[in-house]
Design a protein that fits this description.
The complex is a heterodimer of chains A (about 270) and B (about 325). A 5-stranded parallel beta sheet of chain A has the order 1-2-3-5-4, with helices on both faces. Chain A has 9 helices and 5 strands. The longest helix of chain A is centred in the N-terminal third of the chain and has 22 residues. Chain A has one domain: Rossmann fold (3-Layer(aba) Sandwich), CATH 3.40.50.970. Helix content of chain A is about 40%, strand content about 10%. Chain B has 2 domains: about 160 residues, 3-Layer(aba) Sandwich (Rossmann fold); about 130 residues, Rossmann fold (3-Layer(aba) Sandwich), CATH 3.40.50.920. In chain B, helix 7 links the parallel strand 6 and strand 7. Chain B has a 7-stranded mixed beta sheet, sandwiched between helices. Chain B starts with a strand and ends with a helix. The relative contact order of chain B is 0.13. Classes of the chains: A alpha/beta (about 270), B alpha/beta (about 325). At the A-B interface, loops of A face helix 3 and helix 4 of B. The complex binds thiamine diphosphate and magnesium ion (MG).
C-alpha cells in the first residue's frame, strides 16, 4: 500500500476499533489507537502472512506482547481476511471465542497473550527455531512501554543477542503512559536505546504515526547483521481522537454515545 | 434451625473497597505500614491511599516477581507490608518469590490478590486466578484466606496486619451483601457457621458464600430442606474442628468455590474427611478443568452452576441420589 492508502486504512481501523469497543462495552482504547499505525504497516506492507499461509512453517510471525490492545489486532486480522469482520460483533460476549486478549482460537493469532512480559521470550524461541531450521521467516513482537519492567523482557533481550537473532524485530509502543501514570513516573526505563544497545541490539527511533518513517525502518531490517533489531515507536496514546490523546483515563475507557459520535466525527 | 445470623440491609461495597478503606485506617496510625503495587493501585482501589499516604506506597512498575521480592525485603526490616497485585499474576508469575522469599524465609508479607477468581470475566484465562488456592496450599508457612463479605474483609485485613507470618488474601471486585451482624466473631483459621440445618451442609469460601446461603434459603422455602452453611474464609489452615462438627451427622456435603475443582477448598475438605473416616455423600463445585467460557463474571459463574439455583440444584441431586 502507498502512504495515502495507509493513511485511509488507519482511519478505517480506528473507527472499527471504537465501534467494537463500544459494542463489547470493554476494551483498551488508548493503547489500541497508539499501536494501530504500526500494525497497519506491518500487516499491509511487511509481514509475509495471509489467511492462505496462516499455518505455513515459513510465514512471518507477529506476536503481540501487549495483548490487552487486542482490538487493534482483531480489526486488522479481520481486514486481512483471517475471519469475517462480523464475528467481532460478539467480542467479549457470552460464549464468544473473541475474548479481550489475543487467543489462538482466532485464526491468525500466533500466541495467547494478555499477561505482560511474555511476547519477547516467545519471539526469541520462535526466532531461534528459524535459525536452527535455516528458514528465512522473521519474527516481530509489539511491547508496551509500561510492560518493560517485567524481568523476563531483559532475560529474553540478553538471549536474543547471544543467539545473534537478526531475524527478530521488537517494537516498543512508546506512548509514555501506562495505567497508574506516565511510565517515567511509575518505573522509569529511559534511556531505552542505551539499555538495548548495551544488551547487544541495534536500535532505531521512529515516529510511530509516520507511515513513511515506519516503512523505512521495516525496510531497513535487520539494522545490523547478527543483531536483533529494536524499533522504539514514539506514539500518542489515544491517537486520532482529540479528547483521548495522552489521557490516562482512556487506557481502558469506553466512549459513551456522545463521545463515540464526537470521535467518529474526528475520524474521517 | 435457619439462619444463625440475619443478613442486614446496609449498602454493600466490594470487598476490595473495604480492603483499601481498612488499609487507610491502619496507615493513619501506623507509619510502618507500606503498600507495594505493580501498576495496580487503580485496580486495587488504592488511588486515595496513594494520595493520602504517598510515602507509604512503593510502586515497582509492571513487575510482579520484583514486587514480591521487594516486599519480602521490606518485611525483613520490620515493615508491615501489603503487596497488592491482581491475584492471577501475583500467584502465578511470582510463585517462586512467594515460596522462597516470603514463605521459606518467613518474611511476613501480606500478599493481597485482587480481582480474584473470574472477576476479570471476558478478559480471559490470563486474568483468571483459578489456580491460586491449589498452588499456594502446597507452600508451607502461608495462611490462605478468601473473605466472603465486607465484615470478613475488614477483619481479615486487621488480623493480617498483626500476623508475624506470611498470609495470602484474595478479593473479588463485585459488591457483596453482608452475611453477618458486626458483632459476630471472625478469627483467621476458624470457619463461620452462618446457617444451621441437619439435612445438608454447604461449605463455601469467598464470594461464593452468599449464593450458597441464598441456595440454602431457597431449599428451605421451597423444599423444606434445612441446610447448614459454612463460610470457610480460611482455606489454610483449614478449620478441622468445624468440619468434623458439621460432618458428624452424615449429611451430604457440597463445597463451593470460585476456583478450579482441583486443589482448592473442596479437595482440602475431602482430604480431611476421607482421612478421618467420614463417609458423607460429597460433591465439589467449582470451575471444571477447562479454559472457561467467555463472559462476564456472573455469566461464567452461572454457566458452571456457581449460582443460587445451580448450587440448589446440585444439592438436590445429591440428596435425591442418596435416597
Ligand atoms: C503481567 C501483567 N501485569 C499486569 C497486567 C495488567 N495491565 C494490563 S495493561 C497494563 C498497562 C500496560 O501499559 P503499557 O505496557 O504501557 O501498555 P499501553 O500503554 O500500550 O496500553 C497493565 C498493568 C497484565 N496484563 N499483565
Ligand atoms: Mg504505554
Amino acid at each position: 500500500m502507498n502512504t495515502n492508502e495507509l493513511v485511509r486504512k488507519s482511519v478505517e481501523y480506528r473507527r472499527k476499533i471504537l465501534k467494537y469497543i463500544v459494542g463489547a462495552n470493554a476494551g483498551h482504547t488508548g493503547g489500541s489507537l497508539s499501536c494501530i499505525d504500526v500494525l497497519n504497516v506491518l500487516y499491509n506492507n511487511v509481514l509475509n502472512v495471509s489467511p492462505e499461509t496462516a499455518k505455513s512453517p515459513t510465514r512471518d510471525r507477529y506476536i503481540q506482547s501487549k495483548g490487552h490492545t487486542v482490538e487493534a489486532l482483531y480489526v486488522v486480522l479481520a481486514d486481512q481476511g483471517f475471519f469475517p469482520e462480523s464475528d467481532l460483533e460478539t467480542l467479549c460476549q457470552y460464549k464468544s471465542h473473541y475474548i479481550g486478549h489475543p487467543t489462538k482460537k482466532i485464526n491468525g493469532v500466533e500466541q495467547n497473550t494478555g499477561s505482560l512480559g511474555h511476547g519477547l521470550s516467545l519471539s526469541v524461541g520462535t526466532a531461534i527455531s528459524a535459525k536452527l531450521d535455516d528458514l528465512d521467516f522473521r519474527v516481530f513482537t509489539l511491547l508496551g512501554d509500561g510492560e518493560l519492567p517485567e524481568g523476563s523482557n531483559w532475560e529474553a533481550a540478553l538471549l536474543a543477542s547471544h543467539y545473534k537473532l537478526d531475524n527478530l524485530c521488537a517494537i516498543v509502543d512508546k506512548n509514555t503512559l501506562q495505567i497508574s501514570g506516565p511510565t517515567a513516573d511509575v518505573c522509569n526505563t529511559d534511556p531505552l536505546d542505551d539499555k538495548f544497545d548495551a544488551f547487544g541490539w541495534a536500535v532505531r527511533h521512529v515516529d510511530g504515526h509516520d507511515f513513511d518513517a515506519l516503512q523505512a525502518a521495516f525496510d531497513a531490517l535487520p539494522f545490523q547483521a547478527g543483531k536483533p533489531s529494536l524499533i522504539i515507536a514514539h506514539t500518542v496514546k489515544g491517537k486520532g481522537v482529540s479528547f483521548m490523546e495522552n489521557q490516562l483515563k482512556w487506557h481502558h475507557g469506553v466512549p459513551n454515545p456522545a463521545q463515540y459520535e464526537q470521535a467518529m466525527s474526528e475520524l474521517i | 434451625m435457619g439462619d444463625v445470623i440475619t443478613t442486614t440491609s446496609a449498602t454493600y461495597l466490594a470487598n476490595l473497597d473495604v480492603f483499601s478503606g481498612t488499609l487507610q485506617k491502619l496507615a493513619a496510625t501506623n507509619r510502618n505500614l507500606l503498600v507495594v503495587t505493580s501498576d495496580s493501585r487503580g485496580s486495587g482501589k488504592l488511588v486515595p491511599f496513594a494520595q493520602n499516604y504517598p510515602k507509604q506506597l512503593i510502586e515497582v512498575g509492571i513487575a510482579e516477581q520484583n514486587l514480591v521480592g521487594v516486599a519480602a525485603g521490606l518485611a525483613s526490616t520490620g515493615k508491615n507490608v501489603f503487596a497488592v497485585s491482581p491475584a492471577c499474576f501475583l500467584t502465578a508469575r511470582s510463585f517462586e518469590q512467594i515460596k522462597t522469599d516470603v514463605a521459606y524465609s518467613n518474611n511476613p508479607v501480606r500478599l493481597v490478590g485482587i480481582s480474584a477468581g473470574v472477576s476479570y470475566g471476558a478478559l480471559g484465562s490470563t486474568h483468571h486466578s483459578l489456580h491460586d488456592f491449589a498452588a499456594l496450599r502446597a507452600v508451607n508457612n502461608l495462611t490462605i484466606v478468601a473473605p466472603a463479605d465486607n465484615f470478613e474483609s475488614e477483619q481479615a485485613i486487621r488480623q493480617a496486619a498483626e500476623l508475624d507470618t506470611p498470609i495470602y488474601i484474595r478479593f473479588g471486585k463485585k459488591p457483596m451483601p453482608l452475611l453477618t451482624e458486626a458483632n459476630c466473631p471472625f478469627e483467621l483459621g476458624k470457619g463461620r457457621l452462618v446457617r444451621q440445618g441437619d439435612d445438608l451442609v454447604l461449605i463455601a469460601t469467598g464470594e461464593t458464600v452468599y449464593p450458597a446461603l441464598q441456595a440454602a434459603r431457597h431449599l428451605d422455602n421451597v423444599h423444606g430442606i434445612q441446610a447448614s452453611v459454612v463460610s470457610m474464609h480460611t482455606i489454610k489452615p483449614l478449620d478441622y474442628e468445624l468440619l468434623a462438627r458439621v460432618a458428624a451427622k452424615g449429611s451430604p456435603i457440597v463445597t463451593v468455590e470460585e476456583h478450579s475443582i482441583f486443589g482448592g477448598l473442596g479437595e482440602a475438605c475431602a482430604s480431611f474427611l476421607m482421612s478421618n473416616g467420614y463417609r458423607n455423600p460429597f460433591r465439589i463445585m467449582g470451575i471444571p478443568d477447562e479454559y472457561t467460557v467467555t463472559g462476564s463474571q456472573t455469566e461464567i459463574m452461572d454457566h458452571y452452576g456457581l449460582s443460587e439455583s445451580g448450587i440448589a440444584d446440585r444439592a438436590l441431586a445429591l440428596l435425591n441420589n442418596q435416597s
